[in-house]
TrEMBL record:
It is a multi-pass membrane protein. One of its GO terms (cellular component) is plasma membrane. Residues 41-159 form the VTT domain. This is Membrane protein DedA, SNARE-associated domain. Pfam families: VTT_dom. The chain crosses the membrane at residues 6-26, 111-134, 141-162, 174-193. Keywords: Cell membrane, Membrane, Transmembrane, Transmembrane helix. It is found in: Cell membrane. It comes from Micromonospora narathiwatensis. PANTHER family: ALKALINE PHOSPHATASE LIKE PROTEIN, UNDECAPRENYL PHOSPHATE TRANSPORTER A.
Amino acid sequence: MVDVQHWLSALPPGVVYLIVAGVIGVESMGVPLPGEIVLVSSALLAAAGVVQPEWVATAAALGAIVGDSIGYAVGRRGGRPLLARLGRRFPRHLGPAQIAHAEESFARYGVWAVFFGRFVALLRILAGPLAGALHVPYRRFLLANAAGGLVWAFGTTYLLFTVGRAAERWLKDLSWAGLAVAIIAGLASTWWLRRRAHRLASAETAAESEPVRAGSDR
């Protein structure tokens, strides 16, 4: 991530905003790209005064919302064969197991999977195409997509910006520590959402295994 931040710092601010929107947008269409790394790196640059946080957040939100919408349209048109092709092209990220897990999340949580998916790497990539392939009503999808994109983009950017500025003031002689604090804060911005998702998944697994145990006791 430090390499990404260093590379972005050499570019004009306008180009940085375009890269943020582009990488996050393409990732949201269903192509595995490091969207969250680009956002975190750009937010840290904003804390250093290289770019403006409001434009970083706006670019990230637009990329997320537009990219997910395009992914939705592609998924609705291509359907499950499209997901199968994506799985063959990116087996590590979008293989049958990953797609099955994402489908299970949609079946259980509906459009909330789109909102919470913005904070989870797998669902962030698959939310748009999968919602389209499953024929989720677009209005409901757009509402959850926009809400998740805005909360994720502005929340992550401004949390990192605030913590980064504080770290810069308080830890001037320990820049490495300031960077570490900023990175940890950025990860913490999505921690409770991911923990919730994991707890729900664990509860579902336990519920599925309960009939098996009950049958074996008879």
